[in-house]
Design goal:
Blueprint (H helix, E strand, L loop, with lengths): L1 H11 L7 H15 L8 H7 L3 H6 L8 E4 L6 E4 L2 H12 L4 H78 L7 H18 L6
Antiparallel strand pairs: 1-2
Protein name: No apical meristem-associated C-terminal domain-containing protein
Organism: Digitaria exilis
Length: 207
């Protein structure tokens, strides 16, 4: 997990007042510069597994690492080990290990493999839970939108019904007026008013 190494290096060398987001930006820049300008695309999964004991064991970071020489302003490093360390490592690799130590190593590998399987399952489960929560949120939003649209439609229908009731009331009042005492002009206005309400209240669809 080379990105974890980049993160640890930037975390260890972060300046005063520097935020985690700034450290993350520098870690991405270092990873890209050290991997043929290829960006790191799995930050989500890295955040899921970065605190697992496995990664701290396989990719430790402490002051005992080899000396580094800064390559550029982005913070990329290159390791340079001294000759004594190389010779000591070579001698250790040539020295045979005992039977008990070999058994212990085999057991350790078996446990590590099991941890990898569990870790993978945990990561998949976390991702599936995230998708489930997202799906539920979308469903609730759709239901809320539908209810809102339904409420607006009901309000509109109620408003139209009230307007029609008011017009009908006015129409009935006009019908009840005694026009025998009206002159010709008043009768004409009364007739026009009745025709207006009739056209609005009693359409062909209502008849």
């Amino acid at each position: 997990m080379r990105f974890n190494q980049c993160w640890n290096r930037m975390k260890n060398a972060h300046g005063s007042g520097e935020s985690d987001d700034q450290i993350m930006e520098r870690a991405h820049a270092v990873f890209k510069s050290e991997n043929s300008e290829k960006p790191f695309l799995f930050e989500y999964w890295w955040r899921v597994v970065k605190d697992q004991l496995k990664w701290g064991r396989i990719y430790p970071f402490n002051g005992a690492e080899n000396k580094r020489t800064k390559l550029n302003a982005s913070g990329a490093y290159t390791s340079s080990s001294n000759q004594d360390s190389d010779e000591a490592s070579a001698a250790a690799s040539r020295r045979p290990i005992g039977q008990n130590q070999a058994k212990a190593l085999r057991k350790g590998k078996g446990k590590a493999s099991g941890s990898e399987g569990n870790l993978s399952n945990d990561a998949v489960n976390s991702f599936n839970e995230f998708l489930q929560r997202k799906s539920e949120a979308i469903q609730k939003m759709a239901e809320a939108t539908s209810e809102h649209a339904k409420a607006i439609a009901e309000q509109t229908a109620a408003h139209k019904a009230k307007l029609k009731a008011d017009k009908l009331n006015k129409y009935l009042k006009l019908m009840a007026i005694d026009t025998t005492i009206f002159n010709d002009e008043q009768k004409a206005r009364h007739e026009r008013a009745l025709n207006h309400f009739t056209s609005e209240l009693f359409t062909e669809d209502d008849s």
